[in-house]
Fold these 2 entries.
Entry 1:
Amino acid sequence: MGTFVFLYFAAVIVMAASLVVVLRNPIYSALSLLVMFFHVAGLYVTLHAEFLAAIQIIVYAGAILVLYLFVVMLLNVKRDERYNRQGTVALFLGVVLLTEAVLLAVSRGFTVATPDPGPEGAARAVGNTESIGEVLYSTYLFPFEIASLILLVAMIGAVILSKKGIMG
Amino acid sequence: MSVPVEFYMVLSGLVFIIGLVGVLVRKNLIIILLSIELMLNATNINFVAFSSHFGNLAGQVFVFFALTVAAAEVAVGLAIIIALYRHHASINVDDFRLLKW
């Protein structure tokens, strides 16, 4: 049952991601990305990361994608531009990288170390949001503050960049 | 956990490759930014899968930081796109040779 649910989510995620790249109209690409975000959130729920699923929907689907759609509709680009012409280089690099990946996976063995089941039960008992909050505000307090600084810098940068007359 | 973590790794790799191809192949600047979002999401899937696999919440905390970086990147990137469009009336990457040697 769990595998079936995972396969559904994975299939929709891969298809929506492909549509983002393939589709011609940027609005459809953004909407396809929205579908993908929702299914990634569903995947998080199956992984017992409920808080992250909520954050994924609120921040990605609610904030970031609205920003994208806003800009797409603001610019209103109708011209039909498509793919770069770099087929031979892409084919060569793709074959090399694929061979390398397959060789690595075969030689090293495609397995992951089994976990020690100790701390998982403890983290589950409290609840996802509370345990994340504890880790975030104790162990990762300094990176958390740095993240707020990044957001401040991005905000100021976005305001200055989109001011009129910035580029000469 | 019923689904093996290798499945999540394969899914994450697929999504990452799709995003990478999108960045390399498309000419529309907005689609390129969307493809970067795809790649960030692929790493997030991996983070959460391993966090659940190893029972360590650090992975989920790192998704928060990736989310912060994604939000900052979108804000600045879209501001740059708007500035470029105002100046050149185009968002096709082939039209911009300012930094090309």
Entry 2:
Amino acid sequence: MRITNLLLLSPLLLIFSCNPDKLPVYGTKTISPATGDSIDYTLPTFAYVDQDSNLVSEATTQNKIFVTEFFFTSCPSICPKMQAQMLRVYEKYKSNSDVIILAFTIDPQRDSVGKLKSYEKKLGIESSKWHLLTGDKDSIYTLAESFLVSAAEDADAPGGHVHSGNFILADKQRRLRGYYDGTKEESVQKLLDELDLLLKEK
Amino acid sequence: MDKNKIIRYLAPFAIVGIIIIFILNVITHGSIQHPGKSTYQSRCAQCHGDNGEGIKALTPPLFQADLPVQHFDSLPCWIKFGMNHSIKVNGIDYDQPMYPNEVDEIQTANVINFMCQEFFNYDTTVNSIWVKQKWKDCE
């Protein structure tokens, strides 16, 4: 085979060499001092209360794929659109016990358990599937950082807080597997497609 | 040939040309877009939905909604200054705050006309002078 033919084939080889069925793993890998193996970044442990005052921790996410968002109930700007899109995720996996949604408020001073409960009713969702979580503010901001997204107080921003509109996809080992713009329909479609891929992953 | 004759000779071609461009435009864009549609999409759709369907009990629908027609004169104020009180739309209570929009009187008039036509089934047209008058009375 002539060398030019090989060159023509090389893009094809590139396509087949990376596995299209496998989602990336985000975050910095660490090296195990004992074995020298590289270890994937996993989310830290956490404990917050949801709209039913139930404790939700990393144990709740055990053997679950979970989609996470950071929001607040009085958010005037991007949140309504985010919730409309998260409702698509909710509707699709409502009866799939392998998938849950975690929504952390970044305005816990105002978003009490009662406020979150009334927000749940407005969305018409079930608390066991879509946890609306509140707790210590600083701890939630730190948690947002561990999801590699931003959340902060900002008096100039509408509603007094800025936050990323990302939906974050995490797998059953609490590894970060995807980031999607929760305000964009096509980006959330990608999330739905990739979540299906993740469900098939062994 | 003098100037007038040339113009008279070319005029039909120009008219036919304009008509062809117009028809092509309609074919490629589907229809002529309502001037209020872009304002609706950039300012209103993220909460009220692309088709005015609203989001559950979080944000009220605009499509076939009763309140906007009942309180038609309040629309300019609501659009520009938002709303901080609870409302009832088609029998359902809504109490999430509506946030203000940076819009001028022309955008506001256009978006009201767009919603009248698309959502309210309300045979009314407003203009920017009417909008400015209503803004004077906002609380």
